[in-house]
Design goal:
By secondary structure, the chain is mainly alpha-helical. It has a single domain, classed as Up-down Bundle (Fumarate Reductase Cytochrome B subunit), CATH 1.20.950.20. Helices cover 64% and strands 5% of the residues. It has seven helices and two strands; from the N terminus they run E-H-H-H-H-H-H-H-E.
């Protein structure tokens, strides 16, 4: 019988960042849709609903930015399951092999997925693109926000973003990427559930406690 061990995979900074990002995307999407709606649910100006929506949106945007920066930092100082190498699997022989086997499983050419203690190759590569979208959201969002404080800190830091498009172009990009992230979140939940069922190693519970059950000695 195969021996099983419990291994600490997701360190607490990774788990905290994961949930901060989840809540941030949820809140930013709801408030962002309301802001872009162009209407207000307020019955009179004193209710200030749009103002509160914008305030919450901007505060959470700062929290989201700090979370993303923290995760990038942890990719260089965290354990091997959080390492930047996980997000560039194509650069390593084993990573390319894992990507191929995972792709064959996702496309129904292989009945079982390759067992991975951390992220599989396809997931790691996908998360790299997701973080690229995070950076697009951060840059376009703060560039738009900086218009309300010309000459300020944010205007100085993010004014270069307007080299890539007009105000409306940045707004459209910001909105489109939001829907990409919402679609990713839906797929992410499904994939986590699927791999939890297939691998039976505590994929979903591990993002709460950090531990997974894996074959003894498996790396």
């Amino acid at each position: 019988m195969e021996k099983i061990e419990v291994r600490y995979v997701w360190e607490w900074p990774v788990r905290i960042v994961h949930w901060v990002n989840f809540l941030s995307i949820l809140i930013l999407s709801v408030t962002g849709i309301y802001i872009g709606w162009g209407k207000t649910l307020a019955h009179n100006p004193s209710q200030y609903i749009m103002g509160w929506m914008r305030f919450v949106h901007f505060v959470v945007a700062f929290a989201f930015t700090i979370s993303v920066i923290a995760r990038i930092y942890w990719a260089f100082v965290g354990n091997k399951y959080a390492s930047w190498r996980v997000f560039t699997p194509w650069a390593f022989k084993e990573g390319r092999k894992n990507m191929k086997e995972t792709f064959l499983f996702y496309t129904f050419f292989k009945p079982t997925p390759p067992h991975c203690v951390g992220h599989n190759g396809m997931a790691g590569a996908a998360y790299l693109w997701v973080f690229a979208l995070y950076l697009v959201m951060i840059c376009t969002g703060f560039a738009l926000y900086a218009q309300y404080a010309p000459g300020g800190f944010l205007s100085t830091v993010f004014s270069w973003v307007y080299v890539f498009g007009s105000n409306q172009g940045l707004r459209l990009t910001h909105k489109i990427v939001m829907w990409f992230l919402i679609a990713f979140a839906i797929h992410h939940v499904y994939s986590a559930w699927l791999m939890d069922v297939k691998e039976k190693n505590g994929v979903i519970s591990s993002i709460f406690g950090g531990y997974k059950t894996v074959p003894e000695g498996e790396d």
